[in-house]
Amino acid sequence: MGAIKFWDWFKYRVGIITAALAVLSLNEWAVIIGILCTVVTCLVNWYYERKKYLIALSGGVRGK
């Protein structure tokens, strides 16, 4: 009986996710994903530039 309850729960959750995804068109999803990728790229660049700056500030990198 436990397996049947699990699959009922699983199918219900997949249905909710599918309905939520169907709210927006493919073009709208593309814009949202593009914005998210841009934000992630900015955060990664900020992290590594800050790390590089802190290393240079502590004297870890010697210029020639």
Automatic annotation (TrEMBL):
<dbReference type="InterPro" id="IPR032118">
    <property type="entry name" value="Phage_holin_HP1"/>
</dbReference>
<protein>
    <submittedName>
        <fullName>HP1 family phage holin</fullName>
    </submittedName>
</protein>
<feature type="transmembrane region" description="Helical">
    <location>
        <begin position="29"/>
        <end position="48"/>
    </location>
</feature>
<dbReference type="Pfam" id="PF16080">
    <property type="entry name" value="Phage_holin_2_3"/>
</dbReference>
<keyword id="KW-0812">Transmembrane</keyword>
<keyword id="KW-1133">Transmembrane helix</keyword>
<keyword id="KW-0472">Membrane</keyword>
